[in-house]
Each structure stands twice: as C-alpha cells, then as structure tokens.
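Input (structure):
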C-alpha cells in the first residue's frame, strides 16, 4: 500500500528558533494517527503545514502522490481540517455558515443541506440551526466546526484538539465517528493532549518533542513489553523525571 501522506526532512524555523527538525513520516490510508507532544513541541506547526496554512518550510510533503507546495488547492480540496479554535463568523447561523463552506467546496445546495442536517441532528443542534452563533457556547461552536470540516467528505481528516469544549456525549460520538471514517478508508491525523482518547482511538502513535520525533509505533510497541499507559509513556519520554514525585514535592512545598 502506498502512503497517502509522505513527509521527508520537514523542518521549520521562526527566526533563529527551530520548531521542527527533520521530520520523516509515512501515513497510510485507513489509519488513525495520534500525534502527541508537550506544549511547544511542534504539533500545531506540523498540522498547519499539512493543511497548507504554513507554506514557508524546508523539506517535502507529498499528499496522494502530489507535492503539497505545487498542488496546494487540489490537496486542500481532499483534506478536512478541524482546529481547536477558529474564526467561525459567529454573526451567521449554522445554516448560513455551512452553506458558505459548501460554496467554497463547490457542493450542491441539497448535498450541503442533507449533510448539515444529519450532522447537526446527531450533535443535538438542529433546533439551533437558524440561531446566530454569537450566542453559542464553545462546545456548540466546536460541533459546527466539526460539521464544516467533514462537509465535503474529505479523504484525509486533520484534527487539532477537536474535543475541546465538548460535552461527554459529544466526545463519545466523535470517537465513534472517527472509527466509522477509518472503516471507510479515510485517514485521520489526530493531534491532542488527551492521552486516554489518543490511546483508545489510534492505530499508531507518533510522539514529538522539541521539534523531533522521539517515538513512533502502536501502543503495544511503545510499551515495549510493559503495561504502561500512554500517559505514563509520554511522561517518561518527555519529562525526563517522575511526575508523581514532582507533584508530591510541589504539594509539600505549599504546606
């Protein structure tokens, strides 16, 4: 099977600060990739490069066999991006906003209406479909963002902390939705700090720290014969110390 995304020697600097250092990845169709790392590790920069938001980088990114640099609009048409925070034009209603997104992807009005109705019904937002979003909670806006990112039925779905602000039932729904999309052969690139969710949904986990990949494999491979949780593996590889002991020392210092 050929990779759907190939990343070779990807590096990125902001001035003198190196954010990504020689990242190499092959991502295959039908995989859910959990992409994790500490704050400032380079996760969001990677996501913004893969989605075409950042175009000033060194190295090569191939998507569906085509250079991202040379075919950026074509690649974007195949990718769904669901960020943690986005400007959502909240003076619009969900119906108006999703109709606008549909126009950007050249979707027929009836397709947009049907897909929007099904997604918003599942998220419990149909009664709010004609309500201006400036009155919405963060979780309600996030549900509209998820709907907009999947509206054009993308082959690749890139998520950056997609569960932020969602209620428990919506979190369960999104987790099940990711599995359903995987079964349809779609590729999911999932960036999150929620270790328990990443561990449960991911076929493969890539751990990045200080701009470099320091671990890449299934949860079984990362455990290397042990029984640690992903949270424990993450802490051991990125902190260089015992976080339980650190927490005990902090508590003791406050007494």
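Output (sequence):
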């Amino acid at each position: 099977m050929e990779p759907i995304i190939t990343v070779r020697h990807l590096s990125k600097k902001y001035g003198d600060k190196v954010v990504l250092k020689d990242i190499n990845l092959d991502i295959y169709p039908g995989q859910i990739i959990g992409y994790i790392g500490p704050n400032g590790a380079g996760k969001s920069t990677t996501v913004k490069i893969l989605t075409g938001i950042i175009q000033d980088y060194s190295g090569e990114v191939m998507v569906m066999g085509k250079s991202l640099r040379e075919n950026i609009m074509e690649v974007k048409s195949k990718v769904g991006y669901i960020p943690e925070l986005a400007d959502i034009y909240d003076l619009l209603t969900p119906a108006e906003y999703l109709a606008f997104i549909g126009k950007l992807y050249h979707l027929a009005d009836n397709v947009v209406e049907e897909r929007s109705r099904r997604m918003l019904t599942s998220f419990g937002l149909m009664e709010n479909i004609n309500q201006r979003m400036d009155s919405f909670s963060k979780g309600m806006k996030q549900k509209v963002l998820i709907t907009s990112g999947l509206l054009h039925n993308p082959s690749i779905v890139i998520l950056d902390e997609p569960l932020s602000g969602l209620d428990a039932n919506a979190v369960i729904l999104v987790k099940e939705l990711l599995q359903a999309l995987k079964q349809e052969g779609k590729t999911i690139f999932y960036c999150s700090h929620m270790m328990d969710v990443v561990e449960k949904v991911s076929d493969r986990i890539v751990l990045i720290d200080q701009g470099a990949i320091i671990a890449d494999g299934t949860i079984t491979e990362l455990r290397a014969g042990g029984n640690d949780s992903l949270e424990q593996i993450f802490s051991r590889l990125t902190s260089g110390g015992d976080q339980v002991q650190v927490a005990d020392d902090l508590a003791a210092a406050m007494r």
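Notes: The mean pLDDT is 91. The longest strand covers residues 17-27.
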